[in-house]
């Protein structure tokens, strides 16, 4: 039997949906004491999986030293893609949520800016997995 080319996407999506459903069901029916242990195990497994992903990304990283200037421009694009939304959201917070101190606006904007890392950290914070 030949698997479709997108089998990994389908498998990961099913895993995410199962995890989402399980978290809602267990959160509603588990005792507070047992739910605390469940949350600790999920937090540990989440960090374990994220570290596995980051290590594998590092293994696949190669640096072509013949053309370093392209890396500079790649870095500039990545920096602006992450930095500009953060800056714009912080300015928006300072203008609309008066009076909010500048340092607090930039801290809150770090987690609210529309970047993949900001969204990930916001979801982890909302799930109570910060610690």
Mean pLDDT: 81
Which oligomerization state do the chains in this entry correspond to? single chain
Beta-strand proportion: under 5%
The major pleated sheet works out as: none
Number of beta-strand segments: 0
The gyration radius over C-alpha positions equals 20 Å
Measured distance between first and last alpha carbons: 44 Å
**Low-confidence blocks of residues:** none
Shape: flat
- Level of helix content? over 70%
Note the total helix count.
Answer: 5
Structure class: mainly alpha
Order of helices and strands: HHHHH
Structure description:
The structure is a single chain. This protein has 5 helices and no strands. It is 78% helix and 0% strand.
Brief overview, please?
By secondary structure, this protein is an all-alpha fold. It contains 5 helices and no strands. It is flat, with a radius of gyration of 20 Å.
Relevant terms:
131 residues, single chain, 0% strand
SSE blueprint and pairings:
Layout: H1 7-29, H2 32-59, H3 68-96, H4 102-112, H5 116-126
Helix pairs in contact: 3-4
